[in-house]
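so my prof wants the structure for this chain in the tokens format not the other one, which i didnt know existed until like an hour ago. anyway here's the sequence
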Amino acid sequence: MNRRDLLKTLGVASGAALVSRPAAGQHAAPYAGDTVGVLVDTTKCMGCRMCEVACAQANGLPEPETDVDLSTLRSTSPTQWSVVNRMETERGPVNVKRQCMHCLQPACASACLTNAMHRTGEGAVIWRESKCMGCRFCMVSCPFDVPKFEYDSANPKIQKCVMCWERLEEGKQPACVENCPFGCLEFGRRSELLDIARARIYAEPDKYVHHIYGEHEAGGTAFLYLSSDPFEQLGFRTDIGTTAYPVYTKEFLYAVPLVLTLVPPFLLAVSKARRGDAEEPEEGGGES
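here's what i got, hopefully its the right format
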């Protein structure tokens, strides 16, 4: 990107910031729609890790290592968006799939100054490279510690599960759901998944904890979990409350000084310029 393009990008972005400033805090608005989601029944998970393999294949990620000890706690990473861990509970080992929770009111999107982290109409929370300025506020704000930064890359990206949103647009299920051989994962409308979860708890009250993780946590999430053991024993945070995290920042966002609305567009323009310089070949670099 040359100097003229840099100034043009900066001017457009700054103008957008001035126009959109009164809308600050809109991320905190109550969510009224019915998103899609995934119900994860941990009582059915056999630890086959087919969800990990399917996720990697669908998203062009490296194949997961085959000799993994599931009892060794793993977190999602820039190269693996879905992981299965074997957690030791009072009743014995339980296999648990972890990935982005896809919050109904995502803190990562609310904290993103350039709207690079975005919640789609269907409910998938995705990251858009062209809008990212590299501030990594999404990483700090996420209560589930999901977004991961490619620290070792020359052109780093934020990596996380995107619920296979491109597959959703084609009318398909997320790859992990489609390839789960034991029925541990179920895809559908969130309201219907909640009904299914409640019905299972009602039908087998001694089998399940009487709680659906994700129904209210952090304001609600698209991924929902059933378990036969307390969720804290499965490694889930149980201290995040039921209020959507963007609500906590609503009043602050309305009071943000004008200068802070101009800094993000400036940094975005600089970031685009740097990416453009890295992609453009040097003059005279061809073979003679």
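also thought this was worth mentioning. DSSP finds ten helices and nine strands in the chain.
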